[in-house]
């Protein structure tokens, strides 16, 4: 997983509405970022509207249409038990969307208070939290996710918890690093001099400024989480059959590569497309939100 | 600062990190739903078997004591034995690690051969079509799910063209040619992802060095452009790339899980996945612990390389 921390030169002003508007305008001037945003929105629409868009029931078995090549009736062909690949790809987008958003939400929800607390309090508490965090960071992302999913048991819910926990240390380090950078800014010292309590300074003055880099990291981590969910489902640790997921579709497709290559092609292209779009969008967001990248 | 002092300082941080890694990995066992002894017994519901497992793994003792016993064994290289094959886990690790190391080395070679020239080309032709194409491929390498790319390459080179074997592994000392043909596709799969990272970092480092005063001076002295790029700019740009390579090598050692699964390569990743499916928790814990330790040590190696390559760090106190 990409763990590039975005440190904020001049982050103090980053959270103001004017700055946000300027960032949005700068982003709109980048054709690649706009195209990526359109792709991400299309992915969200496909996932949300899958019941309306899918031409068939994704679990409907049709033994008269086993492994049929793409045709007018089945645009992306059918799988080993005659299920429509297009319908399963559309419904599979739901699992990917959930797996992209929920683990990142778990990671953000846990990392913000933890990183803020660690950075603001400092001392041995900070040292202890960061040592545990370093330990988690030293185990590769996918290995943590696989090990956790293995011990928690297979299923989309457990896979999302595993991915969220695996992504947590990157966010904790990012939030804590940003807090340390902002803690010495003049506006924070001014707030302290005016008698603001430590929790108030942390929540009202420091927290808003940790959001831009967190936002960039979140967009990149959604991409990593989608790949992680597909990987876990591919291994049989994520979404369980017959529920559709791009990873489990690829797992099944492996056995029919020579007879039905379309079974492997389209789910993989979907993962590739959405992850690429999220990475391009993440690059664009980093460029406009971090002055050092401009 | 002396090198030994630098290494000693880094080791001082590394020891507590590894301690917490061991705690986290031991804690995984506590996540097992219900009674760990019943879970470890698998399908055997025999109360005597469960009681034997409980006594054997000290599961009837307090958790800190269990951790102490486990860590004491791990420190002398005793990871227990595989619940399925009854082979000591250490033997499994020793037999699988060389396969993954070979795969990681071949992948790294491919990544360096693609990533560094592409990064140089992209930086020296910034803003041109070459730059755009190189960036597109770098981002594609970072975005493509490796296991899917593996499946697609098998489809093309093994199923359609029949040029390379679809899966399997032959050790190099048995048949070098077959070894290379079996390792080529998985190395390309893993190498393309790392090539993307190396290309982006080489490009960024080259852009910085190409704008440096000493490069401008070299150009003012009419040094041929090829020499300016390769001798003056690249040599300095490679310092961060070398350390990045060491870190990426660490990732490759542990990140080949799905690629090994797709190509049926009997390495570390496959050992982990097989351990997961067989509910062989001692194997899973050992693979995760060894992967994390290797990753931490390679990170230390990367830092030492950076220290050696960067004269400014050596001069600091």
Structural class of chain A: mainly alpha
N- to C-terminal distance of chain B: 5 Å
- The pLDDT mean of chain A sits at 87
Global shape of chain A: elongated
CA gyration radius of chain A, whole angstroms: 22 Å
Hey, roughly how much beta strand do the residues of chain A contain? under 5%
**DSSP helical segment count of chain A:** 11
Largest interface: pair, residues per side: A-B, 44 and 50 residues
Run of helices and strands of chain A = HHHHHHHHHHH
User: How would a textbook summarize the main sheet of chain A?
Assistant: none
- Average pLDDT level of chain B: 87
Helicity level of chain B, as a percent range?
A: over 70%
Structure description:
The complex is a heterodimer of chains A (294) and B (317). In chain A, 71% of the residues lie in helices and 0% in strands. The two termini of chain A are 23 Å apart. The N terminus of chain A is likely disordered. Chain B has 317 residues and is mainly alpha-helical. Chain B is globular, with a radius of gyration of 24 Å. At the A-B interface, helix 5, helix 6, helix 9 and helix 11 of A face helix 1, helix 6, helix 7, helix 10 and helix 11 of B.
Task: List descriptors.
heterodimer; A: about 290 residues; mainly alpha; 11 helices; about 70% helix; elongated; B: about 325 residues; globular
Protein topology:
The complex is a heterodimer of chains A (about 290) and B (about 325).
Chain A: H1 17-28, H2 31-48, H3 50-53, H4 85-121, H5 123-137, H6 141-152, H7 156-183, H8 186-193, H9 198-235, H10 246-253, H11 262-289
Helix pairs in contact in A: 1-11, 2-4, 2-11, 4-5, 4-7, 4-9, 4-11, 5-7, 6-7, 7-9, 8-9, 9-10, 9-11, 10-11
Chain B: H1 3-28, H2 36-41, H3 47-56, H4 63-75, H5 89-124, H6 129-143, H7 146-160, H8 176-210, H9 213-220, H10 225-255, H11 257-262, H12 268-277, H13 281-309, H14 311-315
Helix pairs in contact in B: 1-13, 5-6, 5-8, 5-10, 6-8, 7-8, 8-10, 9-10, 10-13, 12-13
């Amino acid at each position: 997983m990409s763990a590039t921390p975005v440190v904020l030169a001049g982050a103090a002003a980053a959270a103001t509405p004017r700055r946000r508007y300027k960032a949005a305008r700068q982003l709109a001037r980048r054709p690649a970022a706009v195209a990526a945003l359109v792709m991400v929105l299309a992915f969200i629409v496909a996932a949300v509207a899958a019941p309306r868009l899918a031409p068939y029931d994704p679990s409907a078995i049709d033994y008269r249409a086993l492994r049929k090549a793409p045709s007018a009736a089945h645009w992306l062909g059918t799988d080993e038990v005659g299920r429509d690949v297009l319908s399963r790809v559309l419904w599979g987008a739901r699992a990917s969307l959930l797996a992209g958003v929920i683990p990142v939400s778990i990671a953000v929800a846990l990392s913000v208070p933890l990183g803020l607390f660690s950075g603001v309090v400092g001392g041995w508490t900070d040292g202890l939290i960061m040592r545990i965090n370093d330990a988690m960071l030293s185990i590769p992302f996918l290995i943590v996710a696989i090990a956790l999913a293995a011990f928690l048991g297979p299923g989309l819910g457990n896979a999302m918890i595993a991915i969220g926990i695996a992504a947590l240390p990157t966010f904790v380090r990012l939030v804590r690093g940003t807090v340390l950078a902002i803690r010495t800014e003049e506006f924070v010292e001014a707030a302290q001099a005016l008698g603001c309590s430590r929790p108030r300074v942390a929540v009202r003055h420091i927290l808003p400024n940790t959001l831009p880099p967190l936002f960039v990291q979140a967009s990149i981590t959604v991409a990593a989480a989608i790949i992680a969910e597909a990987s876990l489902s591919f291994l049989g640790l994520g979404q369980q059959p017959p529920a559709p997921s791009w990873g489990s579709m690829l797992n099944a497709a492996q056995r029919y590569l020579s007879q039905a290559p379309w079974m492997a092609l389209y789910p993989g292209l979907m993962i590739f497309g959405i992850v690429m779009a999220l990475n391009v969008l993440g690059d664009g967001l980093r460029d406009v939100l971090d002055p050092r990248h401009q | 600062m002396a090198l030994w002092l630098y290494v000693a300082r880094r080791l001082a941080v590394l020891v507590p990190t590894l301690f917490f890694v061991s705690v986290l990995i031991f804690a995984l066992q506590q996540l097992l739903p219900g009674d760990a002894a019943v879970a470890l017994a698998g399908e055997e519901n025999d109360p005597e078997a469960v009681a034997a497992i409980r006594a054997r793994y000290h599961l009837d003792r307090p958790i800190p004591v269990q951790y102490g016993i486990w860590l004491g064994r791990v420190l002398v290289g005793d990871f227990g034995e595989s619940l399925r094959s009854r082979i000591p886990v250490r033997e499994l690790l020793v037999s699988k690690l060389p396969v993954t190391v070979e795969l990681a080395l071949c992948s790294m070679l491919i990544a360096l051969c693609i990533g560094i020239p592409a990064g140089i080309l992209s930086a020296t032709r910034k803003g041109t079509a070459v730059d755009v194409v190189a960036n597109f491929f770098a981002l594609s390498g970072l975005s493509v799910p490796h296991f899917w790319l593996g499946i697609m390459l098998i489809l093309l080179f093994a199923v359609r063209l029949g040029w390379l074997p679809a899966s399997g592994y032959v050790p190099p000392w048995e048949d070098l040619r077959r070894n290379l043909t079996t390792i080529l596709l998985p190395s390309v799969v893993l190498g393309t992802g790392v090539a993307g990272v190396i290309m982006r970092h080489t490009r960024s480092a080259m852009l910085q060095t190409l704008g440096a005063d000493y490069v401008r001076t070299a150009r003012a002295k009419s040094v041929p452009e090829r020499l300016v790029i390769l001798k003056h700019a690249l040599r300095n740009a490679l310092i961060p790339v070398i350390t990045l390579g060491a870190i990426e090598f660490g990732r490759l050692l542990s990140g080949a899980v799905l690629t090994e699964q797709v190509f049926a390569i009997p390495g570390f990743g496959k050992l982990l996945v097989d351990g997961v499916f067989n509910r062989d928790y001692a194997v899973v814990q050992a693979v995760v612990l060894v992967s994390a330790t290797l990753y931490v040590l390679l990170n230390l190696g990367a830092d030492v390389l950076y220290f050696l390559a960067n004269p400014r760090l050596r001069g600091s106190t």
